[in-house]
Amino acid sequence: MLLILLMSCGGDVGLVAEGHNDPPHVELLSPSSGASLFVGDALAVEASYRDPDGDDALVRVHWSSSLDGPLQGASELGGGLSSMDVSSALNPGVHLLVALAVDERGGTDADQVELTVINPDVDGDGYWATAYGGDDCRDDNPTIHPGAEDICDDVDQDCDGDVDEDATVQTLYPDQDGDGTGAPEPSVETCAWPDGWMLTGTDCDDADATRIDCVSCKAIRSTRWDQGDGLYTIDPVGTSPFPVYCDMTTGEGGWTLVGTNAFDRAWSNILILDDAAFGSASLERSHKSAAFSQVLFTDLMFENGEMDAGYLSVDSGERSYQEFQAQLDFYNCGEDSWALSFGTLDASRLCDGDTTLYIHPKDQDGGLYGGCEPGSIECQGAAIVTHPRAAIVTHPHAC
Q: Is the bond preceding 24 in cis, omega lying within 30 degrees of 0?
């Protein structure tokens, strides 16, 4: 319908179309452009609006996000202001927050600001990233956060600045020949277990997978396996390793203890001539080592307390002390003898009053005399040590 109004008294005549409408104007007041908040934080929005037509009551303001769509919450409208407490948490990311004003005649206006919603716990492990004031040093991995177990992987799981401190550290040894036993050097302290490293470091020959233990103390002497006097493992025949005591210091060292006579009558004729071992390696207790019948020797040393007597080139190095003694004649009184090469035994402690060694293989019954001459007494408590380029023997009767 078109209305025509006539103004009298010479006034102007104006025409007004009934369907004309000026759109509303809206301005987003809060939040400000470029603002940010964390996921889950409360969000309040506010905008001012006006209608050039003067019918503000007919304007409505709608709130929305470019990422989440229409926003819901408790809203108020009136007096030229629209506000809302947003009830749903916004998704993380950069939002375009839009206030859209619409009047009843379809007029619209919109204003928008950029709002960044931050997720400070991207990996969901319950700890905020350090970039946002938290103490999660790796917010891209839920297994890394304060309080986590610091496992062995060269990573700081618990974010304390230390690596692998909760992991079990082991000493490992290199196994170059792949026989399952490592060489003693170089060892490493690590919580990892790299290929080619073992928990044991007793391989005497790490270039030969068929041999782990050395054949004698002499073979160990002056190598990286040499740790001074003490117990070692040897394997003269390559099939059955056993522990022996090694003297690595006397007479240039490398002596393998093959037996000890503590003068307790533990030895006998039978024991000295067979290959059965008894007792365990010791300088104080009677025992017969497997070395007695397995280690090949050239040199002998008899040790008695503070004194010792060494004899070199006693045998050829092609047989054990047991085999050597078994072939000696009964009543060997000077027929086979060896001059003292080094040692501290004085003449009064030797059986015949001089420094020559006589061995009586059949005199193993613990008696006072060796069966040759009166005065040919046994040396009590003697420990025999043989040197093969290898062995040390301890003989119950040094004379």
A: no
Task: Specify whether the CB–CB gap between 260 and 287 falls below 8 A.
Answer: yes
Residues in the chain: 399
Q: DSSP secondary structure string, 33-45? A: TTEEEETT--EEE
Residues 6 or more apart whose Cβ sits within 8 Å of residue 118: 36, 37, 38, 39, 92, 132
Whether 297 and 390 have beta carbons less than 8 Å apart is answered as yes
Q: What does the H/E/C string look like for 121-176?
A: CCCCCCCCEHHHCCCECCCCCCCCCCCCCCCCCCCCCCCCCCCCCCCCCEEEEECC
- Other C-beta atoms within 10 Å of 105: how many? 15
Look at the alpha carbons of 175, 181, 186, 192 in this order and tell me if their dihedral is positive or negative.
Answer: positive
> What are the structural domains of the chain?
25-118 (2.60.40.10), 124-165 (no CATH), 168-210 (no CATH), 217-387 (3.90.215)
Q: Which amino acid is at 155?
A: V
CB of 325 within 8 A of CB of 358?
Answer: no
Predicted model pTM: 0.47
**Token pair for 397:** 């009767």
Question: How do 108-118 and 35-38 pair as beta strands?
Answer: parallel
**Smallest Cα–Cα separation from 352: which of 366, 368, 367, 372?**
372
Question: Which residue has 């969901």 as its token pair?
Answer: 124
Distance CA 84, CA 87 (A): 9
pLDDT score for 4: 32
Contact at 8 Å (CB) between 57 and 50? no
- Tokens for 228? 């001074």
The Cβ-side half-sphere exposure at 176, using a 13 Å CA radius, reads 11
Amino acid at 369: Y
* Contact by Cβ (8 Å): 84, 73: yes
Ranges of the chain whose pLDDT falls below 50: 1-17, 349-353, 363-383, 386-399
Q: What is the dihedral of CA 382, 386, 391, 393, to 10 degrees?
A: -30
| Residue bearing tokens 């393998």 | 256
Tell me the backbone φ, ψ of residue 167, rounded to 5 degrees: -80, 150
Residue 204's nearest CA partner among 215, 196, 193 is 215
